[in-house]
């Protein structure tokens, strides 16, 4: 089975996605097709020898073959027509916007492309922190109380609180607010990344663990459990 790797895109985590693709190249011991999506959402077929960070930061990727989506896969133009990029399945390795919010999944579904990654509905629910809260409530999963903040509104939850852009991965734009003197700065940072901001009470000393899982042949397979190293959150 031949694999394609789609990475990059218009995201605050654009560079992290590039690094992930480079790491995957070194981990998977098979031939891969690398398809880079730039910030303008153009697709480029990247040769394996060019899979290094400065190839993208310098803009040299623009000299690579352009590819486009059509029924059944990615294609390139040639003098004799169009050629299909040889990959049976593509891996959605885009971090944040375009990859984790469901846009890429929707494109793959629309064009009938087989892919590895979460589907549209799952992506839409998990990318928006407020929708994730709704899903947790529906599934009877305990979750912290929260409120949504606008630029004009003030939080009603007592300090200390934590502010999070509603649609952003990792800890980008997230700030802990210990008292009213820190609120204005935290709001400015959060609203730089999103028009909606989620507010929760901040609880000290919470232990955090990461665990990934997927269903293979009807059985759930789990990754190792990781405990992120952190100071305050």
Structure explained in plain terms:
With 233 residues, the protein is of the alpha+beta class. The chain is built from six helices and 14 strands. The strands form three sheets. Strands 6-5-4-3-2-1-7-8 form an eight-stranded mixed β-sheet, sandwiched between helices. A four-stranded antiparallel β-sheet has the order 9-12-10-11. The protein starts with a strand and ends in an 11-residue tail after the last strand.
List the helices and strands and how they pair.
Elements: E1 3-8, H1 14-27, E2 32-37, E3 43-46, H2 53-57, E4 65-70, E5 73-78, E6 81-84, E7 89-92, H3 103-111, E8 115-116, H4 120-127, H5 129-138, E9 147-149, E10 161-165, E11 175-177, H6 183-193, E12 197-201, E13 213-216, E14 219-222
Parallel strand pairs: 1-2, 1-7, 7-8
Antiparallel strand pairs: 2-3, 3-4, 4-5, 5-6, 9-12, 10-11, 10-12, 13-14
């Amino acid at each position: 089975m031949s694999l394609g790797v789609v990475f990059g895109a218009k995201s605050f985590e654009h560079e992290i996605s590039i690094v992930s693709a480079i790491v995957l190249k070194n981990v998977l011991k098979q031939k891969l097709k690398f398809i880079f999506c730039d910030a303008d959402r153009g697709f480029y077929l990247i040769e394996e020898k060019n899979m290094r960070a400065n190839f993208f930061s310098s803009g040299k990727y623009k000299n690579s073959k352009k590819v486009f989506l059509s029924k059944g896969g990615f294609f390139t133009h040639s003098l004799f027509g169009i050629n299909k990029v040889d990959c049976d399945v593509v891996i959605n390795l885009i971090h944040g916007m375009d990859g984790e919010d469901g846009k890429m999944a929707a494109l793959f579904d629309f064009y009938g492309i087989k892919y590895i990654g979460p589907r549209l509905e799952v992506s839409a629910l998990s990318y928006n922190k407020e929708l994730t809260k709704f899903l947790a409530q529906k599934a009877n999963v305990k979750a912290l109380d929260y409120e949504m903040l606008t630029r004009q509104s003030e939080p009603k939850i007592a300090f200390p609180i934590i502010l999070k852009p509603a649609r952003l991965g990792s800890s980008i734009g997230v700030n802990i607010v210990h008292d009213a003197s820190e609120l204005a700065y935290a709001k400015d940072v959060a609203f730089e990344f999103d028009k909606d901001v989620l507010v929760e009470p901040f609880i000290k000393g919470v232990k955090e663990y990461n665990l990934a899982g997927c269903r293979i042949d009807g059985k759930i397979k789990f990754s190792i459990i990781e405990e992120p190293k952190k100071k305050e959150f």
